[in-house]
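Job type: complex structure
Entries:
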Amino acid sequence: MSEPVPLVEVTRGPFVESRHFGHAVVARAGGEIVNAWGDPAKIVLPRSSAKMIQALPLLESGAGAGLSQERLALACASHSGEQRHVDKVSTWLHELGLDEHALCCGPQASRDDALRDDMIRRGVEPSRVHNNCSGKHAGFLMLAKHLGASLDYVDPENPVQKAVKSAFEEVCGERSPGFGIDGCSAPNFAASLAGIARAMAAFATAGTGGGARETAMVSLREAMMAHPELVSGKGRACAALMSAAKGQAAVKTGAEGLFVAILPGLGFGVAIKIEDGATRASEAAMAALLIRLGVVEAEDPRVAAFLAPRIENWDGLHVGDVRACRTLFD
Amino acid sequence: MSEPVPLVEVTRGPFVESRHFGHAVVARAGGEIVNAWGDPAKIVLPRSSAKMIQALPLLESGAGAGLSQERLALACASHSGEQRHVDKVSTWLHELGLDEHALCCGPQASRDDALRDDMIRRGVEPSRVHNNCSGKHAGFLMLAKHLGASLDYVDPENPVQKAVKSAFEEVCGERSPGFGIDGCSAPNFAASLAGIARAMAAFATAGTGGGARETAMVSLREAMMAHPELVSGKGRACAALMSAAKGQAAVKTGAEGLFVAILPGLGFGVAIKIEDGATRASEAAMAALLIRLGVVEAEDPRVAAFLAPRIENWDGLHVGDVRACRTLFD
């Protein structure tokens, strides 16, 4: 087992103040590893970076037939809980004959500062629809109803989660060694980082003539790239990097330092795990790998904002920088 | 140079999801290293863990003669911006003939959720007095006035910062290789982690018969232990660990994974740097070392809350734990 390697540095004045170690894999759909840093066999919990995989049964079952691209993007989203996200998920739930109380995720404050502060001023508590995973859960509910399953859809024994596990193991090309419970209460299945990268490559190479799974993969991939701000939110990494990639990459962050990319033009999948779980590092590392692979440009301000974000102090002074290590480019 | 070693793990279900690598040193006042993990020679920016050192010139110069223990605790504080912190610093500034506009730190929202939300409701912006460093800055201003220096006291060439640098190098027993600009705009001088630990041991062994420096060290150490919630805030690590240690430890956190301890009974100093800068890890590692050194008990809930905090998800489910690695106890 290889140890994690330095992937991202944080400077302050003339010093490297902190360093983030991690693992990264670029793979082809057959599982062939194109590039690797650290330990490709490392077992990881993909957290929200697995949302595209978790959405596969929704489409493969036929439950989600005819779903709009916006709703498919929301099913794959870790959204910011902006008003548009809340409204679209609420409408989806309403059409299912349900409301926020059917969601098994807990409530979460909006990441939209203006909305959050406005809710505080109005004395309105955050709801479950504001939870960044509410779109995924709307998809789970739609699938549960279609399958005639219990609406306790986060139970690992529920047919929804059994279908998710089955799809997950198939696209990763390996048996999952188990699961943890995610921030939103759904089971989150583990796999090797190389398995996750291979799954993303399968999304990248899928074509519409390839059967239900490939068709579902194409639909989800295209929906994400068509609605980057529904997958995340204004100014956030997934939205910025997908906009900059102009159809060359569908990317998805996950808690605890995960970040994955589907690269349709190259037929590659990418998976990154920062050992310590830091988002500032997973974002910088993903920006670096997308530059390395030629799908975005370092000079694009949407990329630079995550490749090398300035660290500003409470008085707005530029006191340091986050920067990807050279090893990600070499 | 030794690489950082795993100090803290984060679990989720049956998996170690993330790991934090770092460095730690326990030292005596003469510089002798009692225990070390990782690289004791690692150069670090101590950030707010240096506040006791930064407060030395305030007392040694005579500027702070007669200051209350509360104000000495605030001079060493990274406080939460609770109303009591804000009120006490405001009164101090007023007695200096100054107000918040004299502070060179930027504004920062209160960490007290109820106060922060109340300010949002009332449409009141956070001020510079709410900044966690406002007590340190009040001390800098008091020293600047005493020295007849410019009130631009964060300029590295200002007599205040020259005095800080001189004291810092003397107590660390080494020349500082430079500085970075801190979150509060003051210069933050670098040293080896072993140097920082040695400085903390000097605070630990200082006696009142030992001249101006030792007297200042005793005053600051005792003030911190007498007012743990003024040094940090309700429910936070420094306050909890100092309360639990019952006069056996003065501890101080710093941004980017720093944590130091002064252990008067043992005559030891402790310094921890988490390589990736994570606070959850520096807190767990400090709790572990205080247990190892016999100054707190693992069963004390004030210690357990930082040694092994539960990770709860948005729905309040217990989904994982932070835990110190065995190496910190062996």
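Summary: Residues 10 and 192 of chain B are 27 Å apart (CA to CA). Residues 211-226 of chain B form the longest helix (16 residues).
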